[in-house]
Amino acid sequence: MSGKQIMKVIGLDLGGNRVPFQNLSDEEFKVMSAELEAINFKSFANKVD
User: Fold this and answer.
1) Residue 29: its pLDDT value, please?
2) Is 22 exposed, middle or buried (0-12, 13-18, 19+ CB in 10 A)?
3) Among 9, 12, 13, 22, which residue's Cβ finds the most Cβ atoms within 10 Å?
């Protein structure tokens, strides 16, 4: 599950996942963040400013 980590990328830190879901490792988070950056995710994601 990476929904909360995706929200963190756009600036909304919702904390960690509850059991039974696991958090992404630091390396997995870095890879996911880079992939989202590569598709310019922030430009079309709804976000709070």
Assistant:
1) 93
2) exposed
3) 9
Which pair of structure tokens corresponds to residue 8?
């963190």
pTM for the predicted model, two decimal places: 0.74
Q: Could you tell me the pLDDT band of residue 10, with boundaries at 50, 70 and 90?
A: confident
Q: What is the 3-state secondary structure (H, E, C) of the chain?
A: CCHHHHHHHCCCCCCCCCCCCCCCCHHHHHHHHHHHHHCCHHHCCCCCC
Residue 49 predicted with pLDDT over 60:
no
CA distance 43 to 14: 21
